[in-house]
Amino acid sequence: MRLPILIFDIETLTDLKSGAHLYHLDLPEADLEQALMKLRRQESGADFQRLPLHEIVCISGLWIDENGAMTLFSFSREQYSEAEILKKFLSIFDKRHPTLVSWNGSQFDLPVILFRAMYHGLSAPSLFDQGEIDQQKRYNNYQNRYHQRHVDLMDAMAMFNGRHFQKLDDVAHLLGFPGKRGDGAYHVPEYVRAQQWLKLTSYCEGDVLNTWLIYLRWLLLKGQLLAEDHRYWVQATIQYLQHQPQHADFLQVWRETSQHTEFTATDFISPTP
Question: Can you give the residue ranges of the Predicted 3'-5' exonuclease PolB-like domain (predicted)?
Answer without folding.
Answer: 47-254
